[in-house]
Amino acid sequence: MSLTGIIIAVIVLTVIWFVSTYNSLVKKRISCGNAWSQIDVQLKRRHDLIPNLVETVKGYASHEKDTLEAVINARNSAMSAGNVKDQATAENSLTGALRQLFALSESYPELKANENFAQLQEEITSTENRISFARQHYNDAAADYNTAMTQVPNNFVAGIGGFESKQFFAMDANEAKVAKDAPKVRF
């Protein structure tokens, strides 16, 4: 094989490697976008349930105006968040506001017994579980993408291709504390 043949083979192999790596990074980036869309669907579902929940609570605990306003304000902030970090912060605030709202049911037995409230509370709890699974899937996809993008020699392709790392949808400090301080069962 001549020197020209070797040079052409090296160039062809380099181009094949570059295209393959680029396509792999694109696939991982799209996977992150898809995973984020799944979170977004569940967040919209939760946002849609909240006005009904607030209206139900108003009928029983109308003088709990501050709590109701906190939920509405947290929902509005969550709906207008722009990026993953802001979305995570706003959603964590909304989760805290919802916890306060659900705590009201302990002070209002009629509210706790209300069928609509119980159903909405169950729907939101179910949605919270879906959000948790979707968040885990997104974070896994983001970790896979970020790892692939920063590994040598992929980082050269990522730099040339303009790939940017993805932010994680992280818990806030209160959520992390609740998860860490989960009750321990002993027999």
How would you characterize this protein structure?
The protein is mainly α. The protein has a domain at 45-172. The chain has helices at residues 3-60, 65-80, 84-107, 109-113, 115-150, 154-161, 173-180. The radius of gyration is 24 Å and the shape is rod-shaped. It starts with a helix and ends in a 7-residue tail after the last helix.
Question: What descriptive keywords fit this protein?
Answer:
187 residues; mainly alpha; 83% helix; rod-shaped; disordered C terminus
What's the gist of this structure?
This protein has 187 residues and is mostly helical. It has helices at residues 3-60, 65-80, 84-107, 109-113, 115-150, 154-161, 173-180. α1 (3-60) runs antiparallel to α5 (115-150) and α2 runs antiparallel to α3 (84-107).
State the low-pLDDT regions, or none.
178-187
Q: What is the H/E order?
A: HHHHHHH
Strand portion: under 5%
> What share of residues is helical?
over 70%
The coarse overall form would be rod-shaped
Which class do the helix and strand fractions yield? mainly alpha
Largest sheet: none
Radius of gyration: 24 Å
Q: What is the number of E strands?
A: 0
First-to-last CA distance? 75 Å
If helices are DSSP runs of H or I spanning 4 or more residues, what is the number of helices? 7
Average of per-residue pLDDT values? 88
